[in-house]
Amino acid sequence: PESLGIVVGIVFLVLAILFQYFNFTADSNWLVEYNAALASICFMILLGFVDDVLDVPWRVKLLLPSIAALPLLMAYAGHTTIIIPKPLISYVGQEVLDLGWVYKLYMGLLAVFCTNSINIHAGLNGLEVGQTVVIASAILIHNLMQIGASSDPEYKQAHAFSIYLVQPLLATSLALLSYNWYPSSVFVGDTYTYFAGMTMAVVGILGHYRFNPETGLLTGTRDGTLVNFYLRMVGPKSEKTLCIHLLLV
Q1: Average pLDDT over residues 45-69
Q2: For the chain, what are the domain ranges?
Q3: Residue 25: partners with Cβ closer than 8 Å, 6 or more residues away
Q4: pLDDT at residue 1 in the model
Q5: Known Pfam families for this protein (predicted)?
Q6: 161, 34 in Cβ contact below 8 A?
Q7: Peptide bond preceding 153: is omega within 30 degrees of 0, i.e. cis?
């Protein structure tokens, strides 16, 4: 089946919505941002499904994540400051810089990057879902380490918020990977790549990141993608082997 990503996306949303009942109270400070994040993810799932059905041009795809991120950006009430790298402090004159509205512009661009990075680095059985599993696992481990190393309740809550969203993403992606791994019995479509990318963007913002029939191998072409670049570097590989190599790299 095509576009199975919509099934995974719906399961994720149901889990994330039900999770509110067990963790949040009516006066929780995180409730508004949490629901805004779910609205952005839901919007991106719908836009991804539209792309699968209508094959939206790339110039439009670049704008879709920015539109989907609007609920999150409008509800964002966190800091708009950045820490200046030490080598640049002497030039800027301060260690912390408040970017104001520019910070929200950056968050919108981050949503565009995360969504399209998953969508571009794709095309092999298991590659889209596999890279999502790798990234989500790294985010989960990072958040757990930060919570264990900190004694600040607000800091811990910020990382816990990230865990609340990345856990169902990892669980649903692992289930999907069992069907999408080579040889794949289902295809995820742009619906999943948009959904996974937007979820990564939300977690980062609110959590305070050609086939050769004779040999049966994939060979690199002049198409400027990371997949083809890797094939030109290491030589022809089977689709299964290539996917494993890319996930490890």
Answers
A1: 83
A2: 5-122+182-209
A3: 31
A4: 58
A5: Glycos_transf_4 (PF00953)
A6: yes
A7: no
For residue 106, how many other CB atoms are within 10 A of its CB? 14
Quick one: pLDDT at residue 119? 74
d(CA 157, CA 170): 20
The encoded tokens of residue 137 equal: 């696992």
41: confidence class by pLDDT, cuts 50, 70, 90: very high
The secondary structure element, H or E, covering residue 117 is helix 101-120
Contact 133, 243 (CB under 8 A): no
Q: What is the DSSP letter of 96?
A: E
pLDDT for 212 beyond 50: no
- 189-206 and 101-120 helices, crossing angle to 10°: 150
pLDDT of residue 70: 86
Q: What is the DSSP letter of 182?
A: S
- pLDDT tens by residue, 133-181: 998 898 899 888 888 877 777 777 777 888 888 999 999 999 988 888 8
Average pLDDT over residues 5-15: 91
Q: Report the distance separating Cα 205 and Cα 110, nearest Å.
A: 8
Q: Report residue 199 CA to chain centroid gap.
A: 5
Q: Which residues contact 244 (CB under 8 A, 6 or more apart)?
A: none
Quote helix, strand, coil % in the chain, to nearest 5: 70, 5, 25
